[in-house]
Amino acid sequence: MPQSPTLMDWLPTLSDFRGNLRAALAISDSGNRLEKLANIAQHRLGFLETIQLDQAVSRLGALEIPGFSTVRLAILASSTVDHLVPAIRVACLRRGLVVDVHVGAYGQHRQDLLNPASALHQFRPQAILLSLTAREAIAGVPIMATVAEVDQAIDRQVDELRNLWRKARETFKATVVQQTFLDAADPVFGSYDRLVPAAPSRLIARLNDRMSQAAASESVLLLDVARASERNGVDAWFDRGRWFQAKMEVSPPAAPLYGDLAARVLAAQRGLSKKCLVLDLDNTLWGGVIGDDGLEGIVLGQGSALGEAHLAFQRYALQLKARGVILAVCSKNDSATAEAVFENHPEMVLKRTDIAAFIANWHDKAENLKTIATRLNIGLDSLVFVDDNPVERARVRESLPMVAVPELPEDAARFVPCLADAGYFEAISFTVEDSQRAAQYAANAEREDLLGSSESVDDFLRGLEMSVSFGPIGTLDLVRATQLINKTNQFNPTTRRYTGDELAALAAAPENVTLQFRLLDRFSDNGLVSAMILRPDPGEPEVLEIDTWVMSCRVFGRDLEREAMNVAVEAASHRGVRSFRASYIPTKKNGVISNLYPSLGFARVEQSVPTDGATRWYLKLADYEYRSTHIARISK
């Protein structure tokens, strides 16, 4: 029997849900109460518990609390989805998002989008989720339809979806998320269904493929319930009785997992996916304890079920590295003994060079995780810590609640599906820079060695032999620049987000100045690591507003912000621009650049401080003093 998706086994259980909920509701301070409720959301909850937690959060009303981002999400559906809303809100809370949800009228998605007087237009969504059933899409296709007729029917459905997506973006400038079509169709011909072009299951599969291709070309994100239902079994998702009674396509028991899938996409779009997989060693990457069993005694590789299970886990970690996830090691072990396994064991798939940060000692693992985050220059909330020991898992969860710690099963054969199903590393794009990221972080270790041997910061920066390539954001830069804008949280003064289409329009507008920067040094090409969007003030065309400025945390502390401002001032001056204006809106994560603008010569604009703590800054370009850096220029 397939496992029920309600379990979400990667999350730890909560022994006293009601007691924890009562304790949270007794907290008078709204911010602390929300923190406590968010902690409860980190646990495995059933459908009813999810509803109760959502009701507790709803009592707080509209909130702007540091550490939590707010999102307005509209769900437009051709089935009943009201029961999914609590699950979406709770799963988003698990990721630091407070979501206000609007559900459109049943089956009225077209009218809602087209009618300016609709409640959807009053709501002004930032994200729109289209949850449509396959029944409507395939209803008019006769079972005797030819391949050509089926293709025409699919083309019509995809063209209609394209129109809906474009209307949603044009009207609301919203992120559009398209749900794949759930295949709840029963076989008509049995196994021969795969050979009949208009058999329902084959139709739905082809529709999903074509729709997914169209979504990629339209910068539309996917919520892949089709894949999830295949993994869990369609009966775990679809209840015929519920469909006939209330037109619920996703059954209530599946709601928590549906909510989690939706939350992953929304979080990934805002740069909240995890970045680094931190691995324990003994009984995690191999069976046994290297310090006791020795190199010949650990269990790994062909010849035993356990050894092959650990080998499969290593292969999966290597696949994650290939798509840009950073790998690190945190183990209680002798460092030399542990590293020797990577170098000398013939069955090891992972090599020492695959690990960007390797810490094996006898210190507290929570403290070692802090060290790893510091070495990699990423936040603790970017880490996923995998350890077979439940005591170590509990210790890290208690000390570092921002670190994701999956509840690893006892059976090593379940390690890969546990980590894969948890969706910590949800992606909304895949670029060349992504595939190179792990190597770039490994190169950071060499830079750290250089820093340690340098007598001063100037010596270190000079020794890096840096150069920067820069120019306007062009067509080939759009995917990576969009990703950087949407994922960057630390070096991001305004945290504005743009879709690929919106960024393309901004880059094409002749009145705007857009810039992208690639930083190279003697260790590696860091790729496109910074982007700027400067827009003219409507009332003062000689003033440019720094609408967006983002920079990858991988290149902090290397003077790139100084050289980028030098370039921006030159580019603007050539256009006759006389001054820059900029805003800094503090968030939980961008405090590292709170002094960015004054450090570059900007003067603060005196004003009453708004509720979000934003400050305004002004720079007269004629008075700008060019910053000295150790970066050579390679103009594009």
Keywords:
single chain; five-stranded parallel sheet; 42% helix; Rossmann fold; Aminopeptidase; 3 domains; 25 helices
**Helical content, roughly?**
40-55%
Proportion in β-strands = 15-25%
CATH topology-level fold name of the largest domain: Rossmann fold
The largest sheet has its strands arranged as 15-16-14-13-12-11-10-17
Structure description:
By secondary structure, the protein is α/β, with parallel strands linked by helices. The protein has 3 domains: about 200 residues, SGNH hydrolase (Rossmann fold, 3-Layer(aba) Sandwich); about 150 residues, HAD superfamily/HAD-like (Rossmann fold, 3-Layer(aba) Sandwich); about 170 residues, Gcn5-related N-acetyltransferase (GNAT) (Aminopeptidase). Helix content is about 40%, strand content about 15%. It contains 25 helices and 17 strands. The strands form 3 sheets. An 8-stranded mixed sheet has the order 15-16-14-13-12-11-10-17, sandwiched between helices. Helix 8 crosses helix 9 and helix 20 crosses helix 21. The N terminus is likely disordered.
Q: In a nutshell, what does this entry contain?
A:
This protein is an alpha/beta fold and 636 residues long. It is 42% helix and 17% strand. The strands form three sheets. The chain has an eight-stranded mixed beta sheet, with helices on both faces.
Give the topology.
Elements: H1 17-25, H2 30-41, H3 47-58, E1 69-77, H4 85-93, E2 97-103, H5 109-114, H6 119-123, E3 127-131, H7 134-138, H8 147-172, E4 175-179, H9 200-217, E5 221-223, H10 225-232, H11 234-237, H12 240-246, H13 255-269, E6 276-279, H14 290-297, H15 305-322, E7 326-332, H16 335-344, E8 357-361, H17 365-376, E9 383-386, H18 390-399, H19 415-422, H20 432-453, H21 457-464, E10 466-471, H22 478-487, H23 500-508, E11 513-520, E12 525-537, E13 540-551, H24 560-574, E14 579-584, H25 596-599, E15 603-605, E16 615-620, E17 631-635
Parallel strand pairs: 1-2, 1-3, 3-4, 4-5, 6-7, 6-9, 7-8, 10-17, 13-14
Antiparallel strand pairs: 10-11, 11-12, 12-13, 14-16, 15-16
